[in-house]
Each structure stands twice: as structure tokens, then as C-alpha cells.
Amino acid sequence: MLLPKKVKHRKWQKGTHRGKACRGNKLSFGQFGLKGLEISRITSRQIEAARRTLTRHLKKEGKIWIRIFPDKPITSKGTEVPMGAGKGDVSHFVAIVKPGTILFEVDGVSEKIAQEGLKKVSYKLPIKTKFVKIN
Question: Which end of the chain is more exposed for a tag (fewer CB within 10 A), N or C?
């Protein structure tokens, strides 16, 4: 699973998530990609499940780029812990995805194979996605 080696602050605030992606919204490495259409948090487990699905579908052909990285720590308190007593421990890391963000890129395979693989990947993710290609 993906997680940062080191973070400046161990626990972050939630923050607000609105607007469209102004960075990471164009294909930079591959010919085909998967674009997110909603605002969401994608966990490192979901990214890993999607990566495995895509590598198994491509069968050692082509190249894959993961364009998102889970760097935001999410905290949670244990069950039956009373209110107060501070913020909980870091439970997992997420990547914040805004509409227009490219999630995965693929190159070195035909369009049909890339489209089928990225469609399987979209089932593993909690947001609506769209297949995109370079014009």
C-alpha cells in the first residue's frame, strides 16, 4: 500500500474540498487515462486494488502510471471511546481527488485493451470516472 515516508505534521485538519482540478488534469505520460469526475477521498487500499486489477488485465504489456498519491492522514478514535481526550490516532491515508484529475495512465497497448482495463479499474474506485485519450 502507498503511504508517505515522512510527513511534516502527523495529524491534519479536514479542510474543504471544492472546485475543479487545475493541476494533474491532462495526460502527461501515456496515451490513455482514467479521469475522475467527482470530489472524493480515495484510500491507499483502493488505489492498490485498482493497480492490481490493471496490471493483471494488461498481462505485463504496456506501462502504467499512478497519478495520485495518498498523502493526507485520516484519524479515527477507537470504538466506545468517550468524547474529549483529544484527536484520534492516524488510521489510514487518502488522496483528495477533484473533478478532472487524471487517476491512472496507460501506454503501450491498444485502445480496446486499455479501455477494458480502465473500466475494470473504475469498479474498484468510489467515484464516477471517464476514459480519456490523447487527441
Answer: C
DSSP for 52-104, written as a single string: HHHHHHHTT-SEEEE-----EEEEEPPTTPPS-SS--EEEEEEEEE-TT-EEE
How many other CB atoms are found less than 10 A from the CB of residue 47? 24
How confident is the model at residue 70, as a pLDDT? 95
Q: Is domain 32-75+90-133 in CATH 3.90.1170.10, yes or no? A: yes
Whether the CB-CB separation of 71 and 131 falls below 8 Å is answered with: no
What nine digits make up the cell of 64?
Answer: 502504467
Q: How far apart are CA 125 and CA 47, in angstroms?
A: 8
Q: What is the pLDDT of residue 83?
A: 87
